[in-house]
Design a protein that fits this description.
By secondary structure, this protein is α/β, with parallel strands linked by helices. Helix content is about 35%, strand content about 15%. It is built from 15 helices and 16 strands. α1 runs parallel beside α4, α4 packs across α5 and α7 packs across α9. The N and C termini lie far apart (about 40 Å).
Length: about 400
Amino acid sequence: MAMWIGINRKARICYGFDDISLMPGKITINPEEVDITTSIGGVTLDIPVIAAAMDGVVDPMFAVAFGKLGGLAVLNLMGIYTRYENPYEVLEKIITCPHEKSTAFIQSVYREPIKEKLVGERVEQIKKSGVVCSVSCIPQYADKFIGICREAGVDIFMIQSTVTTARHIASSYKPLDIASFCKTAKVPVVVGNCVTFDVTMELIETGAAGILVGIGPGAACTSREVLGLGIPQVTATADCAYARDMYYKRTGKYVPMITDGGMVSSGDICKAFASGADAVMIGSAFVKSDESPGKGYHWGMATSDENLPRGTRVNVGVSCTLKEILFGPAKVDDGSQNLMGALKLSMGSLGAKNIKEMQMVELAVTPSIKTEGKIYQSLIKSMGKNKK
């Protein structure tokens, strides 16, 4: 649906998590009896959650801890763990750098060349612990890294950039042929990021094992402010999920959609699945964990861009263990802990016994969903801000 914004110019109406709510149906289910497992590239995950490939969120030790809890953590091959033998000295400097100097300092840190030896070592470090290993890099490095990662035992290889299409035009370098890459990679390849039906369909047709959905919604990402582009995640997920469903009807092959970013509470996660997601990718929620290498700080993957950084260092603090964030018990009431318990309760309340049924629940456009009857909560929040 579109509306006029000027003479002969229309704009689509799009929706984010704050714009919708989930409508309960005719049945309810015991939350302990719902199935939240999902599958990506033939790899089954006990929980449908992926930890984002950001240096402040995922290091090899976090990847192991997250994997043992049933999820999938993605290591950033473009980050400090493949540039420095001792990345933790660098991490400490990033964390303690004054905020006004942080972007410039992070840029300098990422000028250190990537060491191929470390790429293989980091993958092996994760695999030795017996968990599923996933890594991520930009398209220009995919051909260079895939052999090293495959030999080291990687299970899922992700190709990520701000905006990814199956048809990239460039004269100063050779664009990655995603279709050819997927055919020869010999491991499942997840591709992103995108937000529209047409692009998703073309990426699916390259042979991708999964698609990352989302441009600019992350807490540390400033692409929307710097570049002015992006689509709110509810609409983006629904549009991309429709491409998945159309492709499945035509071919019988199911390619999962992974909603990447924009979720700040367990309620947002529930809405992502109701919008059509098969899994969600999250960063800021997990950097709050005791196991996070960023100690409560994280920064967008595009922060280090030498010419036009599109990330900012944010401090969300450390609140509890990773297990408590995922499975509780929650010690706070803001939807930042016991994420899987909340997802199960939401699914049970909606009568959805698995992720597939959760994708089919009824949605409502409800701009007042977070404010209706919340006068006292609003007053408490306002008082808290004034004290600060």
